[in-house]
Design goal:
By secondary structure, the chain is mainly α. It has a single domain, classed as Phosphate transport system protein phou homolog 2, domain 2 (Methane Monooxygenase Hydroxylase, Chain G, domain 1), CATH 1.20.58. 80% of the residues lie in helices and 0% in strands. Plays a role in the regulation of phosphate uptake.
């Protein structure tokens, strides 16, 4: 290989490292957004709520930057095999992270509307929030470490998140039936729970994409899910 070829390889590796660095930064910001959104709900932390909302434009810009670099690498470098899968996965993962950021901001906005703790037990929602955060953290680790086993564990854990959501849905409907004064707060909690469930879905997508990027094969086509119910009718 001539010197030009060596330079080209080094340049490609430098750009790939830059892509990985942007992905890691985007993961960190989105993880923080989710953490702040959860704090906004359970600690009534108005500052955390605003921080989760304020970070959204930064996440959107990172998605655009990652997309631009990934397309440049695909067009100009003609990457092969594992590099090709990693770059395509980065494109898709950045889209999932952007959506997670949107859901976190939505949770934060909703937390500011009403005192959600009034007369309601939030232990189920708190546990769901913790589980979604933990799965996202492990999904981010799987991406950074390119660890397919950890990715598969995150993928499998989504079933438990769905089951929490279904149980919460039933609990909140019961509260609404018991006392009409609960309807307002419960509607907010239902939307927060649905947004957490969606964050779990996108985290699972990330795990699937990491697994494919590293192994060159897909996880089973059907994602593990909890029992379906009327809860699935709740949209963002």
């Amino acid at each position: 290989m001539g010197m030009d070829g060596v330079h080209t390889v080094k340049s490609f590796e430098h750009e790939l490292d830059h892509l990985r660095g942007m992905m890691a930064r985007m993961c960190g910001i989105v993880e923080n957004q989710v953490s702040q959104a959860v704090s906004a709900v359970f600690d009534l932390n108005v500052t955390a709520a605003q921080e989760a909302i304020d970070h959204d434009p930064m996440v959107d810009q990172l998605e655009r930057d990652i997309e631009g670099l990934a397309i440049r690498l695909l067009a100009l470098r003609s990457p092969m095999a594992g590099d090709l899968r990693e770059i395509v996965s980065a494109l898709k993962i950045s889209s999932d992270l952007e959506r997670i950021g949107d859901y976190a901001a939505s949770i934060a906005r909703r937390s500011k509307r009403v005192d959600l703790t009034e007369s309601l037990s939030l232990s189920g929602l708190r546990n769901m929030g913790r589980m979604v955060q933990e799965n996202l953290r492990r999904g981010a680790d799987a991406m950074t470490l390119q660890d397919p086993e950890r990715a598969q564990e995150v993928w499998e854990a989504d079933c438990e998140v769905d089951e929490y959501y279904t149980a919460l849905f039933r609990e909140l409907v019961t509260y609404m039936m018991e006392d009409p004064r609960n309807i307002g707060p419960c509607i907010h909690l239902l939307f927060i729970a649905k947004n957490l469930e969606r964050i779990g879905d996108h985290t699972t997508n990330i795990a699937e994409r990491v697994f494919y990027a590293v192994k060159g094969e897909n996880l089973p086509p059907v994602r593990p899910r909890g029992k379906s119910s009327a809860a699935d009718a709740i949209d963002q």
